[in-house]
Amino acid sequence: MEPIPEDSIVRINVGGIRFQCYRKALNTFPDSKLASIEKLATECYRNDSNEFFFDRNPLLFAFILDGYRKGLLHLPKDHCGITYKEELEFWNLSARWVAPCCWETLYKCDSDVETMKQLLISFKRTNEKMLVKEGSDDLKTRLWQFLEIPNSSKHAMVWSMFISAIILASTLMQALASLPSFQVEPSEVEKETLKRYTKWYNMPFGLTKPHPSILYADFCCHVILSIEFIVEFVVCPNRRSFMLSPVRIIVFVSYVSYWIDIMLELNLDKLANSHALNVYVVFKYMTILMLGRLFYITKQVPAFKILGLTFRSSKQELKILVFMLGVLVFGFGYTLFITELLQESEINNVFVAMYWALITLTTVGYGRYVPTSVLGHVVAGACALCGVLVLALPIGVIASAFYTFYYNHKYASKHLALAF
């Protein structure tokens, strides 16, 4: 086909809609497909209607052709950015020609796609219909679904609520055991053992122990939880992944430490040497890991899972938050130390001043360290204002990411439910 004169009108049919423009307008973007439209004549030109035909989206082409006329491409706000990118790729148009006012529409789809990918990965890890092989319906599989996936059936949901209640009851027992009203005096032999604690470790140990009813109730809770953990491990389709889970490692260690601790507790009068007492103290402190069982309850609350995804996707914002907080803590802390240097103040070193700055910046306001000089009060006021204004900026971005994950999680749940 011979070159079309610059002042001639070119007719372009896109998806059944006819567009017309001057040939010189198509030269706005020299590297695009329409800039050399004559080369497309063998494929797209129709002699009967004297026009070029392209089977593409006519609504989006209207914005693209308008970009040829204006020199900048504008995007419709009500269209998917991915679809527009596909159109730009078809017409050989670079994204650098997109107007700044439309950058958000063009690139927001990338973050949305990344968000959905992370949600789908999370669903594949937690949804039993994706973990279990297709067509598998044996007893182990059904038992695994029953124990691990609360949403697999009504009975599984009831069991999950029962286990959650047992975990909360066990945690409550641990808390009640620290109250004087739920403690009793040990035997004379156990008192002698506790006195040896005080002598060997040079620190006072309480001469009381939890009430037997508290110990028995906690014992029953741990029997149920331990059996449930063992059965989960036996029926798990992938035991290696099961035991490599950080939460399950913590729970496993906490159960082992509890059973060792309870055996030592029942035989407290037989701990006659320092090595046995060392073992008892170590496992006594390790029982704090039992708080990791509370993560079991989070399986029923999607918000906790979304919160973890939010933190993982907001690493850059968290880095900015930590960096800004560190700079402000050091700056205001050192400044306050200088202003209080000649005063009779409890802020007598830089580290105390930095602790004060951290408490003030995070708007906690807790602590006995306060400035006493007039200049110190000025620094304190500036520090409080910076904490409210500066630190709120990255937190707002993280909160926005949480809302995005939360609503996309709802959409993904509904969409994936259609596949099963």
Any chance you could write out the topology, listing elements then pairs?
Elements: E1 9-14, E2 17-22, H1 41-44, E3 45-46, E4 51-54, H2 58-70, H3 81-90, H4 103-126, H5 128-131, H6 139-148, H7 154-176, E5 183-184, H8 188-201, E6 209-210, H9 212-235, H10 239-244, H11 246-266, H12 274-286, H13 302-313, H14 315-339, H15 350-361, H16 374-389, H17 392-417
Parallel strand pairs: 1-4
Antiparallel strand pairs: 1-2, 3-4, 5-6
Describe this structure in words.
The protein has 17 helices and six strands. The chain is mostly helical. It folds into three domains: 100 residues, Potassium Channel Kv1.1, Chain A (2-Layer Sandwich); 161 residues; 100 residues, Helix Hairpins. The strands form two sheets. Strands 2-1-4-3 form a four-stranded mixed β-sheet. It has a two-stranded antiparallel ribbon with strand order 5-6. Strand 3 and strand 4 form a beta hairpin. Helix 4 crosses helix 13, helix 6 packs across helix 7 and helix 9 runs antiparallel to helix 11. It is elongated and about 110 Å long.
For this entry, give a set of tags.
420 residues; mainly alpha; Potassium Channel Kv1.1, Chain A; Helix Hairpins; 4-stranded mixed sheet; two-stranded antiparallel sheet; 61% helix; 5% strand
Number of domains: 3
Q: What is the N-to-C succession of helices and strands?
A: EEHEEHHHHHHEHEHHHHHHHHH
Number of alpha- plus pi-helical segments: 17
Largest beta sheet: strand ordering: 2-1-4-3
Low-confidence stretches: 128-135
Q: What is the terminal-to-terminal distance? A: 55 Å
What is the general shape? Answer: elongated
Radius of gyration: 34 Å
Structural class: mainly alpha
Number of strand elements: 6
- Estimated helix fraction: 55-70%
How much of the sequence lies in strands comes to 5-15%
How many strands, which pairing sense, and closed or not: the largest β-sheet? 4 strands, mixed
Overall pLDDT metric: 81
